[in-house]
Amino acid sequence: MTTAVERLLEVVAQLREHCLWTRALTHDSLVEYLLEEAHELAGTIAAGHTTGQDAEELKGELADVLYQVVLHARLQEEQGRFSFEDVAAHLAAKLIRRNRHVFRPDGTLQERFPATLEEIERSYDAVKAAERPERTGPFAGLPASLPALTLAAKSLDRARRSGIPVPGPAGNGHVPVQAASDEELGELLLGIAGAAAAQGLDPEQALRRAVRRFQDRVMQERPGRDLD
């Protein structure tokens, strides 16, 4: 009996063979669609469409993202490099290897599991660092093209987990944040964006440059530490 995944792979292969538009797709041309579908999925989740009838919308968005992954894998399979099956096998092996607090090397479950998030973070970070010894610094592998707020949050988290003081109440405290909830924080950020616009400033680029300065300071003070 054909599984849903097998049928999906068959349909995509047939589209690549018989649909001129799909046949013309490349990794480069697919990037814009991948980003669009990922943002649509994030928007669906942010809107709370995850339960009841709304879950059907989530299912559709997940399917759109999966289609992008299958297409990219199919392009490689046509070149004789790897298949979607190889991608799935790579992911399973990576999850087992990275999460040694859950799995033994052979993929079976550990007898006991960490009781705190801190233990999990230490275990996960140690494995990642050992996998990529050529990468130096806590920000290695962090895409510079991420949205500025996401890039800032991830950079600060990487620094924190590496034992490096970070700006803000959780670090050295020189950047006060008067927000007691997500809603208040959102209004604060909206106000900052509005003030920047009124002065002809670009908050996205300003924050991106601030993140770069922070990363540069960290690398000058404590080079050679990797968390990716």
UniProtKB/TrEMBL annotation:
Gene3D superfamilies: MazG-like. GO terms for molecular function: nucleoside triphosphate diphosphatase activity. Pfam families: MazG (PF03819). Keywords: Hydrolase. Coiled coil: none annotated. InterPro entries: MazG-like_dom, NTP-PPase_MazG-like_N, NTP_PyrPHydrolase_MazG. Residues 26-103 form the NTP pyrophosphohydrolase MazG-like domain. It comes from the Bacteria. CDD domains: NTP-PPase_MazG_Nterm. One of its GO terms (biological process) is UTP catabolic process. PANTHER family: NUCLEOSIDE TRIPHOSPHATE PYROPHOSPHOHYDROLASE. This is Nucleotide pyrophosphohydrolase.
